[in-house]
Amino acid sequence: MRPIPPLANHLGLPCRNAVVTHQCRGDPSHRVSYARLHPGERTMADSPLQMRDIRFALYEHLQAPEHTGLDEDTIDQFLDAGHTFVSEFLAPINAKGDEVGCTRHEDGSVTTAPGYQRALDQWREDGWGSMPHPEELGGQELPLVLVSAIDEMVIGSCCAFHNYTGLTRACANMLSRRASDEQKQTWATKLISAEWQGTMCLTEAGAGSDVGASITKAIPIEGERYKIQGEKVFITSGDHDMVDNVVHIVLARIEGDPEGVKGLSIFIVPKKRLDENGEATIDNDVFCAGIEEKMGIHGSVTTTMKYGENGGCEGYLIGNPRDGIKIMFDIMNEERIVVGQQGQALAATAYGMALKYAKERIQGSSIAKGKSITTDKVAIIEHPDVRRMLLTVKAQSEACRALLLKTSLLLDQEGAAEGEERKRLSALAGFMTPICKAYGSEVGFQACSTAMQVFGGYGYCKEYGVEQLVRDARIACVYEGTNGI
Ligand SMILES: Cc1cc2nc3c(=O)[nH]c(=O)nc-3n(C[C@H](O)[C@H](O)[C@H](O)COP(=O)(O)OP(=O)(O)OC[C@H]3O[C@@H](n4cnc5c(N)ncnc54)[C@H](O)[C@@H]3O)c2cc1C
To answer: Largest Cα–Cα distance in the chain?
Structure first.
């Protein structure tokens, strides 16, 4: 392990990290801040990611090599490369993204937070986005259980960043299963290569949990082409400056179709349509009318999208009319596992941070030695109640990880099975998916809050970064269907 560079608070200077603007308080020798470590000098041992536990889940609990055909060395290479990527490109941008957030301009364009573009460029170059997709569309056909393990590292380092890449992947997966060959070649390939962004567009001002109340309209032009008119709210990654095109997957009702969810169809609605050379250059009358100010995930842009305000928006039907909700569930089910993992991954990171803090923060005396003020002071990890909190967070995070990775492995096994066995595995994965979502998000949020408690008052302040994890984790209980429902 390389030596930790001298910290600002050791010198009694204002903290270096831009998030922290005040003079650090307390006895500095008792506190070490991740946020203040220079990112370039961060070492594997400093990382709050729980690499040993991820490996334990993959190898000891799930015997992933036996089920996936990838040996431990190969899986380890992916995990190590993932660790390098998140350490160099994501962990350093997490706090800044929270502080700066995204900016919408008058013309509807959106600027993402500093460092996000660089991280997405590297993500694309490394091919992380293409991991699970079919080879004929440019994918690597890697098992979902490995994708999930990498997801934990990405989310645990920068949850907001994952909202860009996770949604793109889910849209690409849906298209590679449900779209026509031409649609796959045109749209899915660009999502798999991570050149373009994917979004899922269900929610409207009057249609939140009650998706069937949607009023976005689709008017037939010819064949798969429809004119789209309507407004969707809360659309994650609806527009931003990191990509040349955004492929919106939109639920809309074809004129004359029945009310309710069963009357909804699903469309590819690009921000830019293709010209005669196949280049995405034609403006498709898709406009970002606003972005939300949120409690957390500030680096992830949440947009209000207007489609066809000027009558010039075209969408392309996927599958059959009125199959919209069934097809959208391909994306939703994948995203439900991801959202559960947002809770779990943030809890795992919060645990790593709390454990480190508890070993370094000196406060109080050991109860084993009585309460005399002359007794030597100890690190707070010596206190049984602090251990209780740490062990609770660890147990919650590990239980959720086991649940999530097991479900991903079930999906891999389902993909490889046939006949009755495939049906059985599909039913089991279908049963587990909402449990992953609701349990992972609920318990993950609680665990982040408990980890914050380990920091005492410092946890409630920005400098250690743990309060960001609590704020970032909260949304997972709400989106992809509220936990109550
Ligand atoms: C940051 C963020 C990102 C999002 N990203 C997307 C996105 O990319 N795409 C997208 O389409 N949507 C997105 N959403 C929308 C999100 O999925 C909805 O907010 C969510 O589904 C709830 O809808 P609502 O906000 O209208 O709440 P409502 O439906 O009004 O619900 C309010 C409360 O009532 C409860 N409730 C409502 N109906 C029932 C019922 N029948 N039975 C019991 N309880 C009920 C709910 O559980 C909730 O507690 C996002 C939201 C946020 C905040």
So the answer is: 85
Report whether residue 484 contacts ligand 1, using a CB cutoff of 6 Å: yes
Most informative mutation of 204, 247, 478, 483 for ligand 1 (most atoms within 8 A of CB): 478
With a 6 Å cutoff on the Cβ, whether 208 touches ligand 1 is: yes
Can you tell me which residue has the tokens 């098992």?
A: 143
> What tens digit of pLDDT does each residue of 316-355 get?
999 999 999 999 999 999 999 999 999 999 999 999 999 9
- Say if ligand 1 is within 6 A of residue 201 CB: yes
Query: What are the E-state strand segments in 127-275?
Result: 197-201, 217-222, 225-236, 246-254, 264-270, 272-274
Read off the pLDDT band of 259 (50, 70, 90): very high
ipTM over 0.95: yes
Q: Are 328 and 251 contacting, i.e. CB atoms less than 8 angstroms apart?
A: yes
**Å from CA of 291 to ligand 1 middle:** 17
Per-residue pLDDT of 242-254, as tens digits, reads 999 999 999 999 9
The per-residue pLDDT for range 374-433, each reduced to its tens digit, is: 678 999 999 999 999 999 999 999 999 999 999 999 999 999 999 999 999 999 999 999
Q: Is-contact 20 35, C-beta < 8 A?
A: yes
Q: Which residues pair with 267 in a beta bridge?
A: 250, 317
398 catalytically annotated: no
Residue 295 CB less than 6 A away from ligand 1 = no
Q: Domains in the chain and their CATH numbers?
A: 1-46 (no CATH), 53-102+111-192 (1.10.540.10), 197-324 (2.40.110.20), 327-477 (1.20.140.10)
C-alpha–C-alpha distance, residues 18 and 393, integer Å: 29
Residue pair 265/252 in contact (Cβ under 8 Å)? The answer is yes
